[in-house]
TrEMBL record:
A GO cellular component entry from the record: membrane
Name recorded for this polypeptide: MALR1 protein
Pfam families reported for this sequence: MAM
Domain MAM, chain residue ranges per copy: 9-135
Organism: Mionectes macconnelli
PROSITE patterns listed in its UniProt record: MAM_2 (PS50060)
């Protein structure tokens, strides 16, 4: 999330997880790997770099689901906008959910299911919330 261009945390998984993702939130099923890992596609990151790292479901989790959770973001307003941009390669269904701190449930705000062409795509989600939230 970033506020109107004031700050933008960029994460490429080269050294660790994003600051927005807790290490302990890397739940079982997620692995940090690159295209040379021998696991299968994708064989490079979204820039075509075979040695660059990204997060992936581990092979034994392909028919299951796994969750990534961000840290807590502050409320948004006209001056403080939250935009999350990410690259994705889908072999199942990818969903982005929003959990506000006053709510117990996660609201689905975006999703995509496997498309015919296997390739990296990019998406940007703008989030508005009057209270603290997690994605």
């Amino acid at each position: 999330c970033f506020n109107s261009g004031f700050s933008c945390d960029k994460c490429d998984f080269e050294t660790n997880l994003c600051k927005a993702l807790y290490e302990f939130n890397l739940q079982p099923g997620w692995i940090r790997r690159n295209g040379q890992s021998g696991i299968g596609p994708p064989y490079s990151d979204h820039n075509g770099n075979e040695s660059a790292y990204f997060l992936s479901l581990s092979p034994e989790m392909q028919s299951s689901s796994a969750t990534l959770r961000t840290n807590v973001f502050l409320p948004t307003d006209e001056e403080h906008v939250c935009q999350i941009r990410f690259h994705y390669w889908v072999s199942g269904t990818l969903m982005v959910g929003l959990q506000k701190h006053s709510e117990d449930t996660v609201t689905n705000i975006w999703q995509v299911s496997r498309e015919l062409q296997s390739q990296w795509k990019a998406n940007t989600i703008t989030i508005n919330s009057t209270e603290k939230f997690e994605v």
